Structures are given as structure tokens and as C-alpha cells.
Amino acid sequence: MTVQKIFDQTIYSDVAQSGFCSSFCGWHTYGGNYLFAWIGVPSSGCNCFSQSISPNGNAGVDAAVSTIAHELAESVTNPYFNGWYYSSSSTGTVENGDQCAWYFPNAVKQASGAYYNIIVNGLYYLIQADWNLSTTTCTMS
């Protein structure tokens, strides 16, 4: 087992999910009364990166943070898969995070070339927008 430290978190390289980086970047579901999600920390060559240069020096963790925000929003609005979703003939069925996937409004470019749109505890992150039902647009909320 290979173990590395990322932001004081232990990452186990033998924990894998089939389809990660090729079909999805994360997912949420439930079991009984428990809601949970799976979010991986991508490595190079993964389709889960929104940018190759990281505002925090670790593109994998930064990509995972955006995926965490995406899955958290969907877990809140559609926890048991009978809540909010959008369906059309062109898109199929999507949740609020999927409706705005890979859309990063209000992005600011750093000198390094990395982009961010929120600051949390002095760290810069590029987080995707979520669907706002009131305005029927993708917004940061």
C-alpha cells in the first residue's frame, strides 16, 4: 500500500472506484437513513481537473474540493433520488450540480495562471456553480 500525505490527510492509493476519472469524478447515494458520497483525489491524466495549474499547489486536491461542493449540493437537493432533478430530451436526467458542471463564474486569474472564485481560510479554490431554481441560472450561492 502506498500512502502519501496531502494537506495533513492520509491518502491511500489502493482505494479505487471503477469509472473514476473516465466516467465520473464523484457520486452520492444513501443507505437507509445515511447519506454518503465518494470523491476521489485525481492524479495526472484524469478528466476531473478543471485546470492544470492549481491555486494551492495541488491540482488533485483542488479538483476534489470542487467535486465535494458538487456532490454536497446534490445530496441536499436530491438525497434519496426523489427530490430535485431536471429532465429533457437533450440532456436526460440531471441534478442541480450536473446542470452547471464545469461552469466556474467570477473566476479570477492568479499570477501563476491558476484561477479561483472563492477563498476559504486564506486558500483559493475554483468551485463550480450550482443551479438556482429561482433565477433558472447557474450561480454561486
Please describe what this structure looks like.
The protein has 141 residues and is of the alpha+beta class. The protein has one domain. The chain is built from two helices and twelve strands. It has helices at 59-77, 96-99; strands at 3-6, 9-12, 26-31, 34-39, 86-88, 92-94, 108-109, 115-116, 118-120, 123-125, 130-132, 137-139. A two-stranded antiparallel ribbon has the order 1-2. The longest helix has 19 residues, at 59-77.
Secondary-structure element pattern, one letter each: EEEEHEEHEEEEEE
How many domains?
A: 1
Total strands: 12
Q: What level of helicity do the residues show?
A: 10-25%
Structural classification: alpha+beta
Main sheet record: 2 strands, antiparallel
* Percent strand: 25-35%
Number of helices: 2
Shape: globular
Roughly how many Å is the radius of gyration? Answer: 16 Å
Average pLDDT across residues?
Answer: 83
Point out poorly predicted stretches: 1-12
| Terminal Cα span | 39 Å
Cross-sheet strand order for the largest sheet? 1-2
Please summarize what this structure is.
This protein is of the alpha+beta class. It has helices spanning 59-77, 96-99, and strands at 3-6, 9-12, 26-31, 34-39, 86-88, 92-94, 108-109, 115-116, 118-120, 123-125, 130-132, 137-139.
Question: How do the helices and strands line up, and which of them pair or pack?
Answer:
Blueprint: E1 3-6, E2 9-12, E3 26-31, E4 34-39, H1 59-77, E5 86-88, E6 92-94, H2 96-99, E7 108-109, E8 115-116, E9 118-120, E10 123-125, E11 130-132, E12 137-139
Antiparallel strand pairs: 1-2, 3-4, 5-6, 7-8, 9-10, 11-12
